[in-house]
Design a protein that fits this description.
Number of helices: 9
CATH topology of the largest domain: Quinone Oxidoreductase, Chain A, domain 1
Order of helices and strands: EEEHEEEHEEEHHEHEEEHEHEHEHE
Radius of gyration: 19 Å
CATH superfamily of the largest domain: Medium-chain alcohol dehydrogenases, catalytic domain
Helix content: 10-25%
Distance between the termini: 12 Å
Structural class: alpha/beta
Largest sheet: 7 strands, mixed
Shape: globular
Strand content: 25-35%
CATH architecture of the largest domain: Alpha-Beta Complex
Number of strands: 17
Length: about 325
């Protein structure tokens, strides 16, 4: 089969190679793959995780067709990959938090990923896609939508809570729509004015006196310290990224005197993914696609990823 591989970081080091599918499990023919910040940073050599093996096949978001029968997955099913590897032997796994498995990690980072014609993967990491969900949305669920859903669950929102979301990119576009589905009063700090058609308040700047019950900020860096100033008393800020930097300056006095909560969130559990697929099956979520490329034109897609304003980049096979 053909696959995308790199032996050292850098877009210029990507090659198309002939490989055999590795590992055990159900064979899946890949139809679409997502290009998200994790994949971009992985190829660029800018991730906080250890990459294994090298040379490496990237790609953590894929959608395909099951080519074999399993216990719950059937031949011909459209499937997506749950992108967390876990061993079912630690207290995190036993408590239903397998995404935090001490011996686990991210599929496509600690293992080869899905930028290839076929993969073999254990059935516990496969989820069937409901018919109502289109292919481009489906390929974006395993990381983009799941990360958003988990972050919102961690926020423990109440109906009509006011929420401010920083950015409407790969995850943000799902965050604002899921939050609206949950009955929240949604504001987004973004240049994407199209979101106003969904009943979402779009801010191109944040007024000094603006305050919210919940803030979702995956951008990190200076924006994290600035954003926490907009929390109401006993408000919650959730982070799941560091797009503009991993270090932030905080006013600690503001945090403790107002009993603010700083909550970390990463990925999601299989239970989260099952709940999310049920929600998307019954909801008319809109996923703007910036551009679609052939997987074999991935270098062009990666260069475009840096310059895109709104929407996802999808890779087709």
């Amino acid at each position: 089969m053909k696959a995308i591989e790199f032996a050292k970081p850098g877009i210029e080091n990507i090659k198309i190679v002939d490989k055999s599918p590795e590992g055990e499990g159900i064979k899946v023919k890949i139809i679409k793959a997502g290009l998200n910040p994790l994949d971009y940073k992985l190829i660029d050599g800018n991730v906080v995780y250890n990459v294994n093996p090298m040379p490496h096949i990237p790609g953590s978001e894929v959608m395909g067709i099951a080519m074999e029968e399993g216990k719950h997955i059937h031949k011909g099913d459209r499937v997506i990959v749950y992108s967390h590897i876990f061993d079912n032997s630690c207290d995190m796994c036993y408590s239903g938090n397998e995404h935090l498995c001490y011996n686990g990690g991210l599929w496509g980072v600690m293992t080869n990923g899905g930028y290839s014609e076929y993969i073999n993967i254990g059935e516990q990491n496969l989820f069937r896609v409901p018919e109502a969900i289109d292919d481009n949305t489906a390929v974006s669920i395993g990381i983009g939508a799941l990360t958003s859903y988990r972050a919102l669950k961690r926020a423990r929102p109440n109906v009509n809570d006011k929420i401010l979301v920083y950015g409407a990119g790969n995850t943000g576009i799902f965050t604002v729509q899921i939050a609206r589905h949950m009955g929240l009063d949604v504001y987004v700090y973004s240049r994407n004015k199209d979101l106003e058609s969904l009943g979402i308040h779009v801010l191109d700047s944040i007024p000094e006196d603006f305050s919210a019950d919940i803030i979702i900020n995956p951008l990190g860096g200076k924006l994290f310290g600035d954003s926490i100033k907009h929390l109401r008393r006993r408000g919650k800020i959730i982070t799941y990224g560091m797009l503009t930097g991993r270090m932030a300056d905080l006013d600690i006095a503001n945090v403790y005197t107002n009993e603010l909560e700083i909550i970390g969130s990463t990925g999601g559990t299989r239970k989260d993914l099952s709940e999310l697929l049920g929600m998307l099956d019954k909801s008319n979520f809109r996923l703007p696609v910036y551009k679609e490329y052939s997987l074999w034109d991935i270098k062009d897609a990666l260069y475009a990823f840096k310059d895109r304003v709104n929407g996802r980049i999808v890779l087709n096979l």
